[in-house]
Amino acid sequence: MEMLQEVSSTIPGWNNSDISYITFDATKGQLPRRQSLDGYDAVVITGSGAGAYDTDSWVLKLVSFVAEIYKDRPDMKLLGSCFGHQVICNAIFKASEDGPAQTDLPPVVSRNPKGWELGIQLVKLSPEFLARFGPVGSNPDSPSEMRLQLVHQDRVNAKSITKAFVRVGQTELCDVQGIYKPGRVFSLQVHPEFNPEIAIECRKPIVEETEFEGIIKNGSGGDDHLYAACAILEFLREEVAEETVAMEEVTEEEVFGKGAV
Q1: Parallel/antiparallel/unpaired status of strands 77-81 and 185-188
Q2: Between residues 63 and 7, which one has the greater pLDDT?
Q3: Looking at the chain, which terminus has fewer C-beta neighbours within 10 angstroms, N or C?
């Protein structure tokens, strides 16, 4: 949230805004009471070393909580990154598995058979997402791609996502790098809040020391966290639509007539 506060001070219309929040530790069973959400704009779910499909009681309660918020509080936005992205998808799309026509689908969230995705990677943004948030101005050589930190080995099954949602983009190792539904849901597999030092610390238990040189070099060329932060802020000030339908398909040629962030 500090990242959003910092970025908001540089954006017209946001420079006098104060982003306030309350933190809950879901791993300790801490979740907000439903009535306490009044007066807030969004529920934010951040990262974790756990899996969104785990059967630990706190994970099950968190997924159930998010599902209830999505169903019963259309005035409340859902925002998530990494584990939070996966929890949101599990909460929203898992119910679709219960229908008889859906029984042959794989789980909404599962281990990625392609393995870990680490370091700064290129996320190829979907034309629909670019149409809403514009090209990546901080990546002029490839403005349809966003460079951000990734530390994950689970993935969201692309077939689980319903037509009411836009897929943010994809990488070589992961087809679903986030989902977006105007005024309701925005999730990212990436970590826009990670600086290189935090990202390296998170990866220490995962990779061998000999791999660090390549990972550090991969992250030395900068990233596009400001673009992601601006997109999040734009999402937070969207009006909640009574009924949201799938965004019209667009092409990249149509997108790049728009301004860049």
Answers
A1: parallel
A2: 63
A3: N
CATH number of the domain at 151, please.
Answer: 3.40.50.880
Which amino acid does the sequence have at 100?
P
In tens, the pLDDT along 31-59 reads 998 888 888 899 999 888 899 999 999 99
Q: Is 108 exposed, middle or buried (0-12, 13-18, 19+ CB in 10 A)?
A: buried
At residue 83, does pLDDT exceed 70?
yes
Task: Give, to the nearest 10 degrees, the angle between helix 57-72 and helix 83-93.
Answer: 60
Asked whether residue 260 is domain-assigned, the answer is no
Q: Is residue 190 part of a domain?
A: yes
Partners of 209 in beta bridges: none
Query: pLDDT band for position 76 (50/70/90)?
Result: very high
Q: How many domains does the chain have?
A: 1
- Give CA–CA dist 38/75, Å, rounded: 9
Question: What predicted TM-score, i.e. pTM, was given to this entire model?
Answer: 0.81
- Reading across the β-sheet that carries 166-167, which strands appear in turn? 42-45, 77-81, 185-188, 178-181, 166-167
Tokens of 41: 């704009």
The reply to whether 261 falls in a domain is no
Mean pLDDT (whole number) for 136-142: 95
CA dist 28 and 87 (Å) reads 17
10: containing domain: 2-255
